[in-house]
Design a protein that fits this description.
Blueprint: E1 16-21, E2 24-29, E3 35-39, H1 43-46, E4 51-56, H2 62-72, H3 76-85, E5 88-93, H4 95-107, E6 111-115
Antiparallel strand pairs: 1-2, 2-3, 4-5, 4-6
Length: 121
Amino acid sequence: MKEDESVLCSRCGSGLEFFEEGSISGQRCLCCGLSVVTTNLSGIKTDSNIYEVSCSGDYRNEAHVRAVSAVSGFNFIAARKRLKEGHFSVFSGEAVDVLKVKNTLVSAGVYCTVEPDFPWG
């Protein structure tokens, strides 16, 4: 097989383009639409470790209280009380959910840590 044959459609001979959409990747023909695909799960989606997110922030800062409330399920008053007490565990779960929680807290300016070491950001 010639090197340039691998980028041509086996059906119509047109060029192929590489694509990634969600959890799949592959090549598709620009002309007839023929596709060859495979699963492409990112590492974070297959990480089955359980991580624990802890945080601390200013109980007088409404953005901090709202962020803690949003990720923990505590109501506003309970979230404020927990922040007033100091650094505490706010969430425990798998990597995909932990990343969302961490991003919510960090975007509000809340200090947070994740244990064990969190390789996903």
